[in-house]
UniProtKB/TrEMBL annotation:
This is Dihydrolipoamide acetyltransferase component of pyruvate dehydrogenase complex. Residues 53-128 form the Lipoyl-binding domain. The lineage of its organism: Bacteria, Pseudomonadati, Pseudomonadota, Gammaproteobacteria, Oceanospirillales. Forms a 24-polypeptide structural core with octahedral symmetry. GO terms for cellular component: cytoplasm. Residues 172-209 form the Peripheral subunit-binding (PSBD) domain. It is an enzyme of class 2 (transferase). Signal peptide: none annotated. Belongs to the 2-oxoacid dehydrogenase family. Pfam families: 2-oxoacid_dh, Biotin_lipoyl, E3_binding. GO terms for molecular function: acetyltransferase activity; lipoic acid binding. Its cofactor is (R)-lipoate.
Length: 474
């Protein structure tokens, strides 16, 4: 056994850890994020050779005018992480995102607690960066956390194995393994990986849980981190004597409500124009192309045609692809079209297909499919919904003939709406004679910000859009 001040060589046993804390355990304190680690905590265990404290930051480009909340911490105070490992999960009104470790090190500070709102650029926590070339030692027993100082009892701390060259491969784990590690509060460095490059698999975790080492580690008492007091939430009161139930709003529903009110009542004077459109030519074109697209793994939808036609119509009326400022109208060169995607009772998201003006129909259909699949599987990131310059709402898929006004997706100046496709009896003049025919028709509308656009530009854009659709392939 080693005593204070004694030199030790690599491989020498420094001491033994018991599953039971000694009776006369000294008292430590968990300190605030701005404070320092108490002297007794500094002496309680050797520390890895470190370089600096590294901020875990929410990148400024991850949010666009929305707030995020801390949904979960994937790593506990004192845990060792590798650069790129998920550390914290954030939730916005529309997506969840994982923030990863910016460097190898030990998590020292949780600056934000679960449920707390954060903004772009916020510091979420701090890592003690570790010199990977130095021998790895046990982390400090008591470390910084955002909370008022409270007394806690020391407990034996499991020794973290030395960092090896295989560590990065070992930490490339799937969601099943990550969930097992979190559920059983396991340290991945204590588990022998049988996968490629030492990667830990599901079977490795299950085997470890049955091992004596796991039983011994389960007896180790973790240092508690005091939870930030949560303000009591007052439940909404029923508005009448009629039997009812209250369904709390989700973050997404609250954001949608705020955006709709702000867009319609506080920002843009909305005006809507409606045209009728014959879909016959693109129906025939889709029949001819659909099989080839399917063989390439791409589903050719009518919405892909609408994106292409909108980008072409903007060549005639560029002002539709713009943003209104008090002193000028900013007209964009890139056509980045957001597509309203319904998530049932969970709300609505608008993933963006970028630079549509440079794409052919196959490229548009491919990008559109990727974005809508991400949306419906809950895998959209904030970046997937940034930078839109125009929006299309294909509300006809749910049976709607037309809707007015469709609320503009701020800060854009227009939104296109496509109604239900249905067969209608129309009168056509053929060889000088009026004849009744059945044609596939739908209504198409454009809701505009009347500060930026007038009826002339609105109707010119719709006329050009309808012309492109009705003459597709000719």
């Amino acid at each position: 056994m080693a005593i204070p001040g004694e030199d030790v060589a690599e491989g020498v046993t420094l001491g033994l850890i018991s599953g039971k804390a000694p009776a006369a355990a000294p008292q430590l304190s968990v300190v605030e994020s701005q404070g320092s680690v108490p002297a007794q905590a500094q002496n309680s265990a050797p520390v890895q050779q470190a370089t600096e404290l590294v901020d875990i930051e929410l990148p400024a480009d991850q949010l666009e005018g929305t707030a995020a909340k801390v949904a979960a911490w994937h790593v506990e105070i004192g845990a060792t992480v590798k650069a790129g490992d998920p550390v914290i999960e954030l939730e916005t009104d529309k997506v969840t995102m994982e923030i990863t470790a910016p460097a190898d090190g030990v998590l020292m500070v949780k600056s934000r607690q679960i449920g707390e709102e954060v903004e772009a650029g916020s510091i979420l926590g701090q890592l003690q960066a570790v010199n990977a070339s130095a021998p790895a030692m046990a982390p400090v027993a008591a470390v910084a956390s955002v909370a008022h100082a409270v007394p806690v009892t020391t407990a034996p701390v499991a020794v973290t194995p030395a960092v090896s060259g295989e560590r990065s491969a070992r930490h490339l784990i799937g969601p099943v393994v990550r969930r097992l590690l979190k559920e059983h509060q396991l340290n991945i460095d204590l588990i022998t990986g049988s996968g490629r490059g030492g990667r830990v698999t599901r079977d490795d975790v299950l085997a470890y849980l049955k091992s004596p080492q796991a039983q011994q580690a389960a007896q180790v008492v973790a240092v508690p981190t005091p939870a930030k007091p949560v303000a009591p939430v007052t439940a909404p009161q029923a508005s009448s004597d009629i039997p009812s139930r209250m369904v709390p709003h989700t973050s997404m529903r609250k954001a949608i409500a705020n955006h709709m009110v702000d867009s319609l009542l506080h920002t843009s004077p909305h005006v809507t124009s409606v045209f009728e459109m014959d879909m016959g030519n693109i129906i025939e074109h889709r029949k001819q192309c659909k099989m080839g697209f399917n063989e390439a793994g791409v589903n050719l939808t009518f919405t892909a045609y609408f994106l292409s036609a909108a980008a072409k119509a903007m060549e005639t009326v560029p002002a539709v692809n713009a943003r209104f400022h008090e002193e000028a109208l900013e007209i964009f060169e890139d056509v980045n079209i957001g597509v309203g995607t319904a998530l049932g009772d969970d709300g609505l998201v608008v993933p963006v297909v970028r630079k549509v003006q440079d794409m052919n129909l196959f490229q548009i259909a491919t990008a559109l499919q990727q974005q809508t699949e991400r949306a419906r599987s809950g895998k959209l990131t904030a970046a997937d919904m940034k930078g839109g310059t125009f929006t299309i709402s294909n509300h006809g898929v749910s049976g709607s003939l037309f809707a007015t006004p469709i609320i503009i997706n701020q800060p854009q100046v227009a939104i296109l709406g496509i109604g239900k496709l249905e067969k209608r009896v129309v009168v056509e003049t053929i060889n000088g004679e009026d004849e009744m025919r059945i044609r596939p028709k739908c209504y198409v509308s454009l809701s505009i910000d009347h500060r930026a656009l007038d009826a002339f530009q609105t109707n010119l854009f719709l006329s050009r859009f309808v012309e492109i659709i009705e003459n597709w392939g000719q």
